[in-house]
Write a structure and sequence with these properties.
- By secondary structure, this protein is an alpha/beta fold.
- 50% of the residues lie in helices and 9% in strands.
- The strands form three sheets. The protein has a five-stranded mixed sheet.
- The longest helix is centred in the C-terminal third of the chain and has 18 residues.
- Bound molecules: iron/sulfur cluster (2 copies).
- One iron/sulfur cluster binds next to helix 3, helix 4 and helix 6.
């Protein structure tokens, strides 16, 4: 897509560049992109915010019309309605999947959010520096395991207590402690050389999923390089309209990974993978872990626990990367796993970055709908492919005492391999 040069950026330190003028990024978009929508309305039934409100302005078509009005100078970018709608949108991209005109909604949304947002320096402070994020995560873990959380949350009003329940459970050890920078398959020569993105929240709250990913890759003949100096991929900041910081992080990671020497850069968080694929710094080498494993062909485990599993499609895997079959094929490759499809598996669970914090009511409605569909399958396990979905679903099943385990699909495969090697 043709983009006019970005606004002038003044560098004031790592990830602390400031935008001199973002006058109207929407006006810098190739105008034909804004004209691509043919107003057919096919996207309307797939849009959760339209479904909830039945308001045209809360639909993909309505939002595109608002963006066009801003680009044409007919609506001020400062108008509260514009900003509200750009953030009421979940960014789930369900509208892109069904659009017959191939409207690149994600690019327009990114630009529109950049127009209405000012950089959030607290978010930058945390997500531009893995060191700072880890310090914050350690403090949070202390709060969680020291008894302080039980004490404080009992005193909180209901709304804050609900927010408290949404926080990620911080891992006892982060990825660095669980994964060596360079690991090779035992007893055989590697067939592929891959890099692993450890992520930001993934690194501190789902380090076990990163370890599982490495184990599965090693078992399938990959040499795994997990560079120490890597940073957050930038997707969370990009999602909030802070494109300058997001691009800076992405460029830094591309350099650190040295993508030209790798067969693939493996990502196990759908939101990160979607952002990195669209961003273009990685020479087309970014692969979701399920996508890569299916491409190279995995060695199926010989045994596994008998499990009834349902699959929740992360929006940024399904709609953002158009990956529907690979995670299912991965799950079907595990013996004794019965895969039961849930109704509306591609409907957003309400996590959507920090949407479950900024739009609590709408996120809660979506979660309720998702849990109902999960419950109807009778599954003991929900497998998914995104940290945000795991957090949202875990909080939901815990609050309702559903007794359902929420895991990353790759973790189920890793467990089966482990069981096999223990016998
Ligand atoms: S499906 Fe595509 S072309 Fe049709 S209204 Fe929605 S965005 Fe526009
Ligand atoms: S990204 Fe999702 S919420 Fe936003 S307009 Fe598209 S379908 Fe609706």
């Amino acid at each position: 897509m043709a983009l006019a040069p970005m606004a002038t950026v003044r560098d004031t330190g790592p990830c602390m560049s400031t935008v001199e003028t973002s006058s109207n990024l929407l006006q810098q978009l190739d105008y034909s992109v804004l004209q691509q929508c043919i107003h057919c309305g096919l996207c309307l039934p797939t849009c959760p915010t339209y479904d909830a409100t039945k308001n045209e302005t809360s639909s993909p078509r309505g939002r595109i019309a608002l963006m066009r009005a801003v680009a044409d100078g007919k609506l001020s970018a400062d108008s509260p309605k514009f900003s509200e709608e750009m953030y009421f949108c979940l960014g789930c991209l369900a509208c892109e999947t069904v659009c017959p005109a191939n409207v690149q909604y994600h690019e327009m949304l990114e630009m529109a959010r950049a127009v209405v947002s000012r950089p959030n320096f607290l978010m930058r402070l945390l997500f531009c520096s893995p060191r700072r994020l880890k310090v914050a995560a350690k403090l949070l873990r202390f709060y969680q395991i020291s008894g302080l959380r039980r004490l404080i949350s009992a005193l909180l009003p209901r709304k804050l207590r609900e927010l408290d329940a949404m926080q990620p459970e911080i891992s006892a050890k982060f990825s660095r402690k669980l994964i060596a920078e360079h690991e090779v398959p035992r007893g055989k020569s590697p067939k592929f050389r891959v890099g692993l993105l450890v992520g930001c929240i993934q690194d501190v709250a789902f380090a076990d999923v990163n370890r599982d990913t490495v184990d599965v890759l090693l078992r399938n003949g990959c040499e795994v390089f997990t560079p120490r100096g890597q940073v957050c991929c930038g997707s969370l900041l990009g999602h909030l309209g802070d494109l300058d910081a997001a691009r800076e992080l992405s460029r830094k990671n591309a350099e650190i990974f040295g993508v030209e020497s790798l067969d693939a850069v493996i990502v196990n968080v759908a939101g990160c993978g979607s952002f990195m694929k669209h961003d273009g710094n990685f020479a087309g080498k970014v692969r979701d872990v399920s996508e890569f494993l299916m491409e190279i062909g995995i060695e199926p485990p010989k045994i596994s626990q008998k499990l009834r599993v349902t699959y929740q499609e992360a929006c940024h895997l399904a709609h953002g990367q158009k990956i529907f079959d690979a995670p299912r094929a991965l799950l079907r490759a595990i013996p004794n796993v019965e895969l039961v499809e849930m109704k509306e598996s591609t409907w957003c669970c309400g996590s959507a970055g920090i949407y479950n914090i900024t739009h609590r009511e709408m996120a809660a409605e979506l979660l309720e709908r998702k849990l109902k569909n999960i419950g109807a399958t009778g599954a003991e396990v929900v497998a998914t492919g995104n940290a945000g979905c795991m957090l949202q679903l875990r909080a939901g099943v815990r609050a309702r005492g559903m007794g359902v385990e929420v895991v990353h699909a790759v973790s189920l495969l890793a467990r089966a391999y482990r069981l096999e090697s223990e016998r």
